[in-house]
Design brief:
alpha+beta; Butyryl-CoA Dehydrogenase, subunit A, domain 2; Butyryl-CoA Dehydrogenase, subunit A, domain 3; 3 domains; 4-stranded mixed beta sheet; 4-stranded antiparallel beta sheet; 16% strand
Length: 379
């Protein structure tokens, strides 16, 4: 039997995050941050560091808290409830965890302590046009030129790309576009010569960028890991990010369910609160069930990450499928029960639904992960 009860340390972490966000991250504050040039608060990010949140995903040997994925989702679920715009998953999981898995001691010491202190931002530049969620689809090229490498290609939808100080860039040094071997990972200065960006605001108010590399010269010391096996680490951090983003989605679903129930208690039609209409009661119960089932799947997937290998991969893909279906259902029902006001900028319901739609689109579609799950089950 699985025990989903939080430990004392995890409960303290949860209480710390929720208390800070309740006091400092009201909806209007979040709207203002999303509308700002940076898209988040540097002051908040430093506070996250001071509170120890940025150390949670990293091992004690790297200077971190040594947290498990259950610790991580305890954090991200609370972040999702507040619709936080700071790039926790993009910088720490997709970026920092890849450095921790692939970097040598010198590379890790040059990056991870600065991440934990809040002085450094990372972004993973991996997604390319036509990848369809397949992490082995890498067309960006890295050619050897003497002792250096020349990097050329385009990366799309780089989360936290506009703010990142350094980029983790995947590129192919050998093999075909979807071969699992021959994938290099480079740690690149985001302001380096030959790099250009198209920065934009995403539907949910966060920031991303398309980044273009034109004969970017990199020293051999910028390489991380081994191109023969890097794909395993890339898949691992993507799965961890899937679980962390699912935590955010489940936090958002909780708020949507709560707000919908509260709205139904006060909104009247024909002189009666719409919450008394049995058909709408059934819908709201179904919203609550979808949220609770997704939370169970979240903890199952978080525990599965500690197993590694195909167990972790299956758990992450199953969670993606489950939360995608649940998020779409909960979001649509929340908007429909609120009516037209549910789509307005003034009410937070629409903002939470937009966040759920964006999480749905990240790191592979539901169809891709359903197919991946089936392949893993029969391999």
């Amino acid at each position: 039997m699985m025990n989903f009860t939080l430990s004392e340390e995890q409960q303290m972490l949860k209480d710390s995050v929720e208390k800070f966000l309740q006091q400092n991250y009201e909806f209007e504050t979040r709207r203002a941050l999303a509308d700002s040039e940076l898209g988040y608060s540097e002051k908040n990010w430093k506070t996250f560091a001071e509170l120890g949140w940025l150390s949670v995903p990293f091992a004690e040997a790297s200077g971190g808290f040594g947290g498990s994925m259950v610790d991580v989702i305890t954090l991200t679920e609370a972040l999702g409830q507040a619709l936080v715009t700071e790039p926790f998953v993009a910088s720490l999981i997709l970026g920092g965890r890849l450095v921790e898995l692939l970097g040598d001691e010198e590379q890790k010491q040059a990056v991870i302590p600065s991440l934990i202190s809040g002085d450094l931002q990372l972004a993973l530049a991996h997604t390319e046009r036509g990848a369809g969620g397949d992490p082995s689809c890498v067309g960006c090229e890295a050619f050897r030129d003497g002792d250096d490498y020349l990097l050329s290609g385009d990366k799309l939808m780089v989360l936290n790309g506009p703010s990142a100080d350094k980029l983790l860039v995947t590129a192919r040094s050998s093999g075909g576009e979807r071969h699992r071997q021959g994938i290099e990972v480079f740690l690149v200065d985001a302001a380096g010569s030959g790099i250009s960006k198209r920065c934009y605001r995403t539907l949910d108010g966060l920031r991303a960028a398309d980044i273009y590399f034109d004969q970017v010269r990199l020293p051999a010391a910028a390489r991380l890991g081994d191109p023969a096996s890097n794909i395993a680490a890339i898949e691992s951090v993507i799965d961890e990010a899937l679980v962390a983003f699912a935590g955010e989605a489940i936090g958002a679903m909780e708020i949507l369910t709560h707000d919908t129930v509260e709205y139904a208690k006060t909104r009247k039609q024909f002189g009666t609160a719409i919450g008394k209409f049995q058909a709408l009661q059934f819908r709201m119960v179904d919203m609550w069930i979808a949220h609770q089932q997704s939370r169970s799947a979240l903890y199952l997937a978080a525990l599965g990450q500690s197993e590694g290998g195909s167990v972790a991969q299956r758990a992450a893909s199953a969670l993606k499928v489950k939360t995608t279906k649940a998020s779409r259902f909960v979001g649509e029902q929340a908007v429909q029960i609120h009516g037209g006001i549910g789509t307005t900028d003034e009410l937070r319901v629409g903002h939470y639904f937009k966040r759920l739609l964006c999480i749905e689109a990240l790191l592979g579609s539901m169809d891709y992960h359903l197919d991946r799950y089936a392949r893993l089950m029969h391999s």
